């Protein structure tokens, strides 16, 4: 990050989008667009010339695909990249692949000509660019990379629940927690800050990679072991009871901590409904959503874990939770999955396959 203004390079084949991003970014007191490029080929020379702090990158562009460029960039010159994506099924799948390759976060492409909501959109871009400039570019997941070492735990308690919250950098962090878990893992509920239209693709991608079943949560469905339930991008996810069973509840009420879904909403419901039978996990993300909720879970007797600073892409939410005393343990990302299994097994120890 530069010591003065954050230097941004915008790469997009649309002149209208380039102009809009330039207008938004240059209106901020602490950042500026140092150059724009219509495609990755032009961007390569501009990166060398201007040494930007953050890159905004379109997904679909002429001359070189955005994903191919991103993969090369993160291998040869890792830097914070904010994807600018279209809100389509195809666009969401490509964006999730970009996050696997090392992109920090994404924003949806704005609806050109619609000025209502533009201030909120501008604030979102500025906030994510600031987080990107403070972030740690993480190792990209290579194409055809073998899956992580699988864990096994034959004596898992059927009463336990795992409750996970994340924001910036969370899509990859969640994958790295869920992917090693065995098919007989406890039920898992996840809130990841993500707009509607992306969470279903996110759940489907995880379902292909994981031994557990992963799906977008539906209102009223029973919470079952061996399943992970992802909060839809436009609703709060809550844990509730129906007789002897746990069920998912979706709430389209107002944002909490400026987010819907909110991690605090999920954590609060887990503290109330499951108490010591839940385990709370707060992963990478900017802001403070989930910090107060993790405190509630710990006060209700639940084991609680926060991701450590060194392995976070953005050490915001975990830092706030640690400062409030909400985290009983602070762990590197790669140690969280084994620790979760040790907390839910009768023997107290997870084994590697």
Automatic annotation (TrEMBL):
Any one GO BP annotation for this protein: chemotaxis
Cross-referenced Pfam families: CheB_methylest, Response_reg
Record has Phosphoprotein as a keyword: yes
SMART domains associated with the record: REC (SM00448)
Modified residues (4-aspartylphosphate): 58
Record flagged with keyword Hydrolase: yes
One GO molecular-function entry: protein-glutamate methylesterase activity
Cited InterPro entries: CheB-like, CheB_C, CheY-like_superfamily, Sig_transdc_resp-reg_Me-estase, Sig_transdc_resp-reg_receiver
Keywords: Chemotaxis, Cytoplasm, Hydrolase, Phosphoprotein
Annotated family: Belongs to the CheB family.
NCBIfam families for this protein: PRK00742.1, PRK12555.1
Name of the featured protein: Protein-glutamate methylesterase/protein-glutamine glutaminase
Record lineage: Bacteria, Pseudomonadati, Pseudomonadota, Gammaproteobacteria, Oceanospirillales
């Amino acid at each position: 990050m530069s010591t003065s203004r954050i230097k941004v390079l915008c790469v997009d084949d649309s002149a209208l989008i380039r102009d809009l991003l330039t207008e938004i970014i240059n209106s901020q007191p602490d950042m500026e667009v140092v150059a724009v490029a219509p495609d990755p080929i032009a961007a390569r020379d501009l990166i060398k010339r201007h040494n930007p702090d953050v890159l905004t990158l379109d997904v679909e562009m002429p001359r070189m695909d955005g994903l191919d460029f991103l993969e090369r960039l993160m291998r040869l010159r890792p830097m914070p990249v904010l994807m600018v994506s279209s809100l389509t099924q195809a666009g969401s799948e490509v964006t999730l692949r970009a996050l696997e390759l090392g992109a920090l976060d994404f924003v949806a492409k704005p609806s050109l000509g619609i000025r209502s909501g533009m201030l909120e959109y501008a604030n979102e871009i500025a906030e994510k660019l600031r987080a990107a400039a403070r972030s740690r570019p993480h190792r990209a997941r290579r194409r055809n990379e073998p899956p992580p070492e699988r864990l096994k735990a034959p004596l898992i308690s059927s009463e336990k629940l795992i409750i996970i919250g994340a924001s910036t950098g969370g899509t990859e962090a969640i994958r790295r927690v869920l992917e090693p878990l065995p098919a007989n893992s406890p039920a898992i509920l996840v809130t990841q800050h993500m707009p509607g239209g992306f969470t279903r693709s996110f759940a489907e991608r995880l379902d292909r990679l994981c031994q557990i079943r992963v799906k977008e949560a539906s209102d009223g469905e029973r919470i079952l072991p061996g399943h992970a339930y992802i909060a839809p991008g436009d609703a709060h996810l809550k844990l509730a009871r129906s007789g002897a069973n746990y069920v998912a509840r979706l709430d389209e009420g107002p944002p909490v901590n400026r987010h819907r879904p909110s991690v605090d909403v999920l954590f609060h419901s887990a503290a109330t409904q499951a108490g010591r039978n839940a385990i709370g996990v707060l992963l990478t993300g900017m802001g403070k959503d989930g910090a107060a909720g993790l405190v509630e879970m710990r006060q209700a007797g639940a084991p609680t874990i926060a991701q450590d600073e060194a392995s976070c892409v953005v050490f915001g939410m975990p830092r706030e939770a640690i400062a409030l005393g909400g985290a009983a343990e602070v762990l590197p990302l790669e140690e969280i999955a084994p620790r979760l299994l040790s907390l839910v097994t009768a023997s107290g120890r997870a084994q590697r396959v």
